[in-house]
Amino acid sequence: MRPSLVNQLRVLVPVKRTIDYAVKIRVNSDGKGVDTNVKHAMNPFDEIAVEEAVRLREKHKDAITKITAVSAGPAKTADVLRTALAMGADDAIHVEIADNSLGGPLEPLGVSKILQAVIAKANEEEEVGLVIMGKQAIDDDASQTGQMLAAMLGWPQATFASKLEFLGKLEKGQEVKVTREVDGGLGVVKTKLPFVMTTDLRLNEPRYASLPNIMKAKKKPFKKYTLGDLGLEDAAKPRLETVNVKEPPKRQGGAKVESVDELISKLKEAGRI
């Protein structure tokens, strides 16, 4: 019999391998994508999600039983899972998808289906009661996976979180308060466990993985699934086709004007007014 969610909480943290944010992006010669033969790292918003899960466990040691990092992609995706383990996750799940089987980027709908199936698998051992994930990936900027996953699970969602507060014990049905960043400032929502939360930049500052923890991460449990294991053979097939990718136009140099009249004249010439 699997453990229930009473007085204990298993946290699932999806992470994604993306091109490192410091790398200059270059368009491929075929104009259908960008050069991926560059340094990759964990998506920065996912680092924040891992950090928040680890901080929760440090604060509620008796309540949080396990932090599980999960990712889908080719063999190299294991690198970011090892990083999550070094940051403090307890185990990892890699849904391995061969490069040549994608036919294009793995889209949010496919990722959501994969995560739903992974949670179902994980629940056979120990019930997942909270999903913390980055609000978006810096490569596609879709910001859709968390919302889709919540809908598929039938769970509440709290997106763009900059603060998380538990209003009682960490157990099923307990209320939580999430402060969200919105256009006009901050918004506060209340929901109940289990739920899906997506993280914003100001939620925390992720820690660096220390060398001892990097070494310990090599011994932590690491499961691998294929799409066939999850019954999702078609989940990686793209629904969208990239027609063309172009670099943004180079910014032109500015110019000084001597008067307001000259400024207005130049704006008219440029068709701005």
Care to describe what's here?
Mean pLDDT is about 90; it is low at about 1-5. The protein has helices at about 45-60, 80-85, 100, 110-125, 145-155, 210-215, 225-230, 260-270; strands spanning about 10-15, 15-20, 40, 65-75, 90-95, 130-135, 155-165, 175-180, 185-190, 195-200, 220-225. Helix 2 (about 80-85) packs across helix 6 (about 210-215) and helix 4 packs across helix 5. The chain is built from 8 helices and 11 strands. The longest helix has 16 residues, at about 45-60. The strands form 2 sheets. The protein has a 9-stranded mixed sheet, with helices on both faces. The protein has a single domain (about 10-240), classed as 3-Layer(aba) Sandwich (Rossmann fold). It is an alpha/beta fold and about 270 residues long. Strand 7 and strand 8 (about 175-180) form a beta hairpin. The protein starts with 8 loop residues before the first strand and ends with a helix. Keywords: Electron transport, Mitochondrion, Transport. Its cofactor is AMP; FAD. Pfam families: ETF. It is found in: Mitochondrion matrix. One of its GO terms (cellular component) is mitochondrial matrix.
